[in-house]
Design a protein that fits this description.
The chain has 425 residues and is an alpha/beta fold. The protein has two domains: 308 residues, Adenylosuccinate Synthetase, subunit A, domain 3 (Adenylosuccinate Synthetase, Chain A, domain 3); 96 residues, Adenylosuccinate Synthetase, subunit A, domain 2. Helices cover 33% and strands 21% of the residues. The chain contains twelve helices and 20 strands. The strands form five sheets. It has a ten-stranded mixed beta sheet, sandwiched between helices. A hairpin with a 2-residue loop joins β16 and β17. The chain is globular, with a radius of gyration of 22 Å. The mean pLDDT is 94. The protein binds guanosine-5'-diphosphate. The site of guanosine-5'-diphosphate (GDP) has 25 residues, from α1 and β3.
């Protein structure tokens, strides 16, 4: 059976923890989109890890970790991650990389920086990991598939053409140093040697695994609202964050995905610019939640940037779950809200004097004001509780109110960062 674990919101919902937890019963964990621009924070017996490229299942000896064709593969980052796991005593993981995955080139990272610099105030707040230039090149059909590293002569010729094109931009648009053809070619040969042990035909491997009845997890990055089609365009990421894309980015049949576990955080947070209707505008209030949030505060796993904080948004989350095709909601980081006397929840958007419940397109979203309903807090520490009925009444009311508003079943409640901090309903 194939299950997808994806986010309903702006990312950082705690997908890493949920994937890590579900991986206990999985044979294969697949990354199907995104690159090293986001990260998952995983806390387990080996320590605390921020993974950017490896799937969250790498800590289990029985799982195979797969980098699908849809991923923006940063080879040095992947190799460093493997080395750092080994250095911290994690047993050598089984890793497969799709021969159809494309490679983040050193110049993608530079172009990302240069473009943000050129845009100045109008910049996207990119993590400068090269993701947007990478996907632009992929769809402009001038990217490099892993398979292309293995034909030296074709590679040399392609590098020549790449330099010809990229150097025009570097010289005339960005006024930056040009790419050295020989150096780039040599770098790609080192990439080839590093990646060689992991490369295989992933879709064929997964096809067989599905036929053999293996448990496969597809691990998404970011969340619905960062999807390039259905998110808050243009403040989105460059590859689809939806479970449906899991079929494409892993190379499996769409009907193989039987369960979609959508991870939803008990409050909101977002990185980067863009509309964020339920944002907490009082900085003292926001900072209070930020420093208690997540496992080590709400600061980006890749960049360390403080995240923008908000109350739970039922409008965005209903939409986020709907686009994912949610079968189960995992409701996370609920323990963090135990300090609040009252908890506001956004139940509608007011736009031009009317209240709407459907998440709108970006120009309308920019005008939306939150309609807040305040629920009583539970004023206690719920971490350590393992049975739903043992949760304080106000806490259960908060969960059940949100479940009704978003219209998808909350089947798991996460009340701490560890694998065992979970309540099944
Ligand atoms: P991801 O990208 O969706 O995996 O999100 P993050 O890596 O930002 O994870 C959110 C943070 O919350 C991490 O630091 C996790 O360790 C932590 N976390 C996940 N679930 C819970 C939870 O239920 N309670 C607490 N306190 N922290 C959690």
């Amino acid at each position: 059976m194939v299950k997808a674990v994806v986010g309903a919101n702006w990312g950082d919902e705690g997908k890493g923890k949920i994937t890590d937890m579900l991986s206990e019963h999985a044979d294969i964990i697949v990354r199907f989109q995104g690159g090293a621009n986001a990260g998952h924070t995983i806390v387990n017996d080996y320590g605390t890890f921020a993974l950017h490229t490896l799937p969250s299942g790498v800590f289990y000896g029985h799982t195979t970790s797969v980098i699908g064709n849809g991923v923006a593969l940063n080879i040095p980052v992947l190799i460093n991650e493997i080395e750092s796991l080994k250095a911290q005593g994690v047993p050598e993981p089984k890793i497969l990389v799709s021969d159809r995955a494309q490679i983040v080139m050193p110049y993608h990272i530079l172009f990302d920086e240069y473009e943000e610099e050129r845009l100045g105030k109008a910049s996207f707040g990119s993590t400068k990991s090269g993701i947007a230039p990478f996907y632009s090149d992929k769809y402009a059909k001038i990217g490099y598939q892993v398979s292309e590293l293995f034909d030296k002569e074709l590679l040399r010729e392609k590098v020549r053409r790449t330099c010809e094109q990229k150097n025009v931009l570097l010289e005339h648009l960005y006024h930056k140093p040009l790419i050295d053809e020989k150096e780039l070619f040599e770098t790609l040969l080192t990439y080839r040697d590093k990646i060689r042990p992991y490369v295989c035909d992933v879709s064929s491997f997964l096809w067989q695994a599905i036929k053999d009845g293996k448990e496969i997890l597809l691990e998404g990055q970011l969340g619905t609202l960062k999807d390039p089609d259905h998110g808050i365009y243009p403040m989105v990421t460059s590859s689809s964050t939806l479970a449906g894309y899991g079929a494409i980015g892993a190379g499996i049949p769409p009907y193989a995905i039987e369960k979609v576990v959508t991870v939803v955080k008990a409050y909101s947070s977002a990185v980067g610019a863009g509309a964020f209707v339920s944002e907490i505008l009082d900085e003292t209030e926001a900072e209070e939640l930020r420093k208690r949030g997540g496992n080590a505060g709400e600061y980006g796993a890749t960049t360390g940037r403080p995240r923008r904080m908000g109350w739970f948004d039922c409008v965005a989350t209903h939409y986020g779950c709907r686009l994912q095709g949610t079968t189960d909601v995992a409701f996370t980081v609920l323990d963090v809200l135990g300090y609040l006397d009252e908890i506001p929840v956004c139940v509608g958007y007011e736009v031009d004097g009317k209240v709407i419940k459907d998440f709108p397109v970006t120009p309308v979203l920019e005008k939306a004001k939150p309609v807040l309903k305040t629920l009583p807090g539970w004023k206690s520490d719920i971490s350590g509780i393992r049975e739903y009925d043992k949760l304080p009444e106000n806490c259960r009311n908060y969960i059940e109110f949100i479940e009704k508003e978003i219209g998808f079943p909350i089947t798991m409640v996460s009340n701490g960062p560890k694998r065992s901090d979970i309540i099944y309903r």
